[in-house]
Prior knowledge:
Elements: E1 8-13, H1 20-24, E2 37-41, E3 46-48, E4 54-56, E5 62-64, E6 67-69, E7 72-76, E8 79-84, E9 87-90, E10 101-103, E11 133-135, E12 140-142, E13 148-150, E14 156-158, E15 161-163, E16 168-171, E17 174-179, E18 182-187, E19 195-197, E20 201-203, E21 209-211, E22 216-222, E23 232-241, E24 243-256, E25 260-265, E26 268-273, E27 285-289, E28 294-298
Amino acid sequence: LKCPKNLEFSYNIRACNHTCRSLSGHDPRCDRENAPTEGCGCPEGTYLNQEDICTPKGQCMCYHSGGMTPPGPVIIDGQQCLCEDGKLRCSKDCGCRNEKVCVHCSEFAENTAQKTCDSLSKPLGANVTCESGCYCPPDQYEDHYGKCISRNNCTCMYSGQLFSAGELVKTNCKTCTCIQGQWNWIDEACSGKCQVYGNGHYQNFDSKWYRFDGHCQYTLVEDYCGYRNGSFSVRLESVPCCDEALTCSRTIILDLEDKVTLTLSDMKVTRHLQSGWNLEQEPLYTTNSGTLYNSLSAKPRSNSPLG
């Protein structure tokens, strides 16, 4: 058998650790069965390079996360390195302080984007990046003071203020706890407001405004949701007003626990009671009449006040 280039035939060829690339790091060929076989390979003491030529290890390129570099001194990631016998050796001195250690991405690529407490609360990007420099030791993170601490002691930021691990913040209807550099939220019962006025101006519970001028009866809000017995619903009847191009909510219908139906129209409130029930049994609502407004307050079974 005639071998290409300067390879030679042997009855005892092994693939493991016989390439220049294997000198720079772990050779995945060694993870498989490495029984000797006959074929073409490099003579003893030489290694197969990227051009499939057998060379002494002193002529081998050095492989790293950023690519390849020829034998000799070279600057990589701002560090003085030396490629020798297929291995890359870089200066360990980065001038690190505050218990931080040097990270050389050319020797060992790791995700340096998440080495701070602040980064733990941010989504991890699709591309894991490595930048050489000074970082906290493994399993430690840089807090907002620049010190290296464990993940359980990581600090959190909220509205420009710094909070220690375990501290609580209450905002709107949530209680937040700083845990491992992230805010852990606990939702609580929260009141909300929606409103309709004028010619089709709607504001929902998210405080977003909409313009809607349909001519029909519409459900503004309810807690039936199609799968349970509800306690209330509010319906609106939008009709033309002032000008045929404008609509106004002239009639409002409020149903309470399928016991009382209240209709507000033309500044008057009328009610309809279901048979077998009267207001003395359970006062479901109160009214307050004024010069400009009729105010009605109700409390359904959920004990969440409605106004």
